Fold this sequence. Notes:
Blueprint: H1 2-15, H2 23-30, E1 34-41, H3 45-48, E2 54-67, E3 79-91, H4 99-120, H5 136-148, E4 151-163, E5 173-187, E6 204-218, H6 235-240, H7 248-251, H8 255-264, E7 269-284, E8 295-301, H9 310-339, H10 353-381, H11 389-392, H12 395-416, H13 423-435, H14 438-464
Parallel strand pairs: 3-4
Antiparallel strand pairs: 1-2, 2-3, 4-5, 5-6, 6-7, 7-8
Amino acid sequence: xxxxxxxxxxxxxxxxxxxxxxxxxxxxxxxxxxxxxxxxxxxxxxxxxxxxxxxxxxxxxxxxxxxxxxxxxxxxxxxxxxxxxxxxxxxxxxxxxxxxxxxxxxxxxxxxxxxxxxxxxxxxxxxxxxxxxxxxxxxxxxxxxxxxxxxxxxxxxxxxxxxxxxxxxxxxxxxxxxxxxxxxxxxxxxxxxxxxxxxxxxxxxxxxxxxxxxxxxxxxxxxxxxxxxxxxxxxxxxxxxxxxxxxxxxxxxxxxxxxxxxxxxxxxxxxxxxxxxxxxxxxxxxxxxxxxxxxxxxxxxxxxxxxxxxxxxxxxxxxxxxxxxxxxxxxxxxxxxxxxxxxxxxxxxxxxxxxxxxxxxxxxxxxxxxxxxxxxxxxxxxxxxxxxxxxxxxxxxxxxxxxxxxxxxxxxxxxxxxxxxxxxxxxxxxxxxxxxxxxxxxxxxxxxxxxxxxxxxxxxxxxxx
Length: 465
């Protein structure tokens, strides 16, 4: 039972981002306590975690190992070892940005959070019988303990960004970041690596990151060349990009040696020469003081030197401008998704003009009421404001309670399988999962799953008696 849930956990987190991870090869390797993949290709979804206007041209992991100590999951850490992670990125031009793409990305990211909530409750699709489940608290505590003590060993990380046609004009722009190794471990309050248990008390989680030879470089304009049509490039051609277009990729030469050779030829220049050090990350598990930050990061690095040529400075400013425009686009699009999209008719305009006119008028009313609503929200967030009986019975609060009851009912019925949802109800559930405020979405889903588990346990008790 435990192995099947851990297998499902790994399948969801690895299979979404790495090609070649499926149930068959996981079931073969998981039982031995070690998962080992070689030359695994990364999916585009792996880059969407960064929420940046970049596209993945090539992504590969030379060697991936995951050690799972089955007999001591409660006292030993799961170790993930990544060797030879290479990412070749390119810009995603503004002409390719779309509301539909952003809606799809928001839906996928929220669906992953919803699946994670279901997994912590020990529920898979169609499973409601108590005999098929362990108490949800057991799995929640187990996965929390695995995540708290997860160890990451990463070696030879190389990320390269290339823009063949920069918006500011000129030759192709290439910049890269290389990291020889990084080790992430859980530590105690004395910053010594240890295995922790939340049940032992403490309101903070400590992570120790050790970095070795972090560097950043750029390709001078005279040596930067265009990649050419993507469909004409082989994997070997893309691997050579990480070695300055030389045959060093086939020789498996170490990056410091490759850089020294290319630097002597004038083909690469350092922006940040290699530096090492460590970082101490403190995460507040329970926030008791609203003025206290959730995360605190303390960096201790060796001497830092920066060398910026005019070409690299223009390129970095161009990347920052692209990211800034993308964030502005996302803010506008998410406002549309949360405020207007739930009311949009899911039918064609032709033949349903009345529904679309009604939708347009409703959007106008919502836009007109927005300034007043923002003022009300500011008053609610004021430290001097108090919750009154009138505010609890306000139309806004009552509407929110009705929405909560509707969502919990739809989730319960969709999971129980006793009263299948109709097409309209399934569409309504999908729209709510995209448009609801994220904390409300996760909290309400947890309430629905807890109610479902209680019903299953009650039915099992009645049957046994």
